[in-house]
Design a protein that fits this description.
Radius of gyration of chain A: 21 Å
Largest interface: A-B, 41 and 47 residues
Structural class of chain A: mainly alpha
CATH architecture of chain B: 3-Layer(aba) Sandwich
Low-confidence stretches of chain B: none
Strand content of chain A: under 5%
Strand content of chain B: 15-25%
Order of helices and strands of chain A: HHEHHHEHHHHH
Number of helices of chain B: 6
Order of helices and strands of chain B: EEEHEEHHHEHEEEH
Distance between the termini of chain B: 42 Å
Oligomer: heterodimer
Number of helices of chain A: 10
Largest sheet of chain A: 2 strands, parallel
Chain lengths: 250, 247
């Protein structure tokens, strides 16, 4: 073992490293994949989508809308799994290294969103080889292009709230697996129930169900804007809650 | 920039209605000094170290003027990660804001210095406990810290590495940084001139009264007095000084 003194010159003294956030994102995604934890949600999504599209064809908007609803709890689960890969002590070391506490959890959310985008891409691609999507067959039905575009919109609106729900169910917040599971299941069920057509409190949950209903038809621009705003505001509120909980819990 | 790290009326508990792990801690660490944090198991030493480092946030009170760069060596390095040693230390250097090239150079330098070079391609879970502890040491020093916090740093280290810890502490102090270190094994006798905090039931106990009675100089055979120091302290004696025998 060398005793030649401090490390080599040329190592710059770190200030507050913005580049470190990108490194942590890559590290977490890599850890999620290398530990094999990515397999369970991936296989679950494939099975669910296989069942969804195995029963016959549907118009693009309708099929993708249901797909987004089915994918929502899987995306939330995947986000929680990714955030839980890192040992608690390493999470604290990373937070210290980054210099500002919020950088660490922002990197976690970004990593979860990145892997979520992968699952979304899969969900958008799966129906085609399975011939699960058809073009319009009756007058007035939305075109394939419109349906596909609405389908992409439905999936992209499901992702941010799912990541936020998964974060709230992660070990850094809940500290125990059973509590995390309860948060995930309760959040998923509440999203479905609150999103039912005659729900009295639809704004309390993310608009996953409302978006699916809109994607099956020809929604007006105002409806698309309102549902997009609802999804983003819900995500913002859930993320603010997550940030507050992370401030008080290491 | 070197600053005086201050803990101001720090209280901490882990759960809303839980017991207080730290109670009204007021303390300061001067630049260029080392502080040994002593106390029984469960007294709150690790908690105090983690609050000082910024790993834990106090329930009440605050830590002021913590330096920009803080190195924390946890009691147990989290080796259960799907990276090899080189990847891990390089990534930690990047998290601290080093460029890729600088991070790789820092990783190589510290791997060499701590005897980790043969293990650079080994996955962290496959490392021995002592080797993993050295990785914990290295990640805290990739960028020279203004505050270095070491929680039982000698645990699991071989003799060479144990000798290196006081050297590393001296380097940080010489650069104006502060050092907080806890230890059960009496190894802190190797840190001459270090101040001493004693933690008892979450509070900093008053400094012990000067010894009254007798002072007995004891000769300890062998190269390492740490065991003898630990035994004397465990028996309730106050160890005033450790020095090499002349000749």
């Amino acid at each position: 073992m060398s005793r030649t003194g401090p490390p080599p010159r040329g190592t710059a003294v770190a200030g507050h490293p913005r580049g470190g956030v990108g490194t942590l994102v890559r590290l977490r995604v890599r850890g999620f994949v290398r530990t094999g934890r990515a397999l369970a949600p991936l296989l679950t999504a494939l099975v669910a989508l296989g069942v969804l599209y195995g029963g016959g064809q549907a118009p693009a908007g309708e099929a993708y809308g249901v797909s987004a609803v089915v994918l929502f709890p899987i995306l939330a689960w995947q986000s929680a799994l990714l955030l839980d890969v890192e040992p608690d002590t390493q999470r604290r070391l990373a937070r210290l290294a980054l210099g500002r506490p919020h950088r660490e959890w922002v990197a976690g959310l970004a990593a979860a969103a990145l892997t979520g985008l992968g699952l979304v891409a899969l969900a958008l691609a799966v129906p085609w080889p399975l011939a699960g999507i058809r073009g319009p067959q009756a007058p007035g039905e939305p075109s394939l292009a419109l349906g596909a575009a609405l389908g992409v919109w439905a999936h992209l609106l499901a992702l941010p709230p799912a990541v936020a729900l998964g974060a709230l169910a992660s070990r850094a917040v809940t500290r125990r697996v059973a509590v995390g599971l309860t948060v995930l299941v309760a959040g998923g069920v509440a999203t479905l129930v609150l999103g039912l057509r005659d729900s009295a409190l639809p704004w309390l949950g993310p608009p996953v169900m409302a978006v699916a209903r809109a994607a099956a038809g020809r929604p007006e621009a105002g409806t698309v804007a309102a549902l997009t705003l609802h999804a983003l505001l819900w995500t913002l509120a859930a993320t603010a809650g997550y940030a507050a909980l992370r401030r008080s819990r290491s | 920039m070197v600053v005086r790290v201050r803990l101001e009326n720090v209280w901490l508990r882990y759960a809303r209605r839980g017991q207080w792990a730290l109670r009204g801690v007021d303390a300061a660490v001067e630049p260029g000094t080392a502080v040994v944090v002593a106390g029984r198991n469960g007294a709150g030493k690790s908690t105090l170290l983690q609050v000082a480092a910024g790993v834990l946030r106090p329930t009440r009170g605050a830590v002021r003027d913590r330096p920009v760069v803080v190195g924390w060596v946890p009691e147990r390095f989290p080796a259960h990660q799907p990276l090899d040693l080189r990847e891990y230390l390089t990534a930690m250097g990047r998290l601290r804001g080093l460029s890729r090239r600088a991070a790789e150079a820092a990783e190589r330098g510290w791997s060499e210095r701590l005897g980790l070079a043969p293990y650079r391609g080994v996955r962290l879970p496959a490392l021995s406990k002592g080797t993993a502890q050295k990785v914990g040491l290295a990640q805290a020093l990739l960028v020279p810290p203004g505050l270095l916090v070491l929680d039982e740093p000698w645990e699991g280290l071989d003799a060479d590495a144990r000798d290196l810890v006081p050297e590393l502490v001296a380097e940080v102090r010489a650069a104006g940084g502060s050092v907080l270190v806890s230890d059960h094994r009496g190894e802190t006798a190797r840190l001459p001139g270090a101040a001493r905090w004693t933690v008892a039931e979450g509070a900093l106990a008053a400094a012990p009264a000067p010894a009254t009675g007798w002072v007995v100089e004891v000769g300890v055979p062998g190269p390492d007095p740490a065991g003898a120091v630990a035994a004397l302290r465990a028996a309730g004696h106050e160890v005033l000084r450790v020095r090499r025998a002349a000749g």
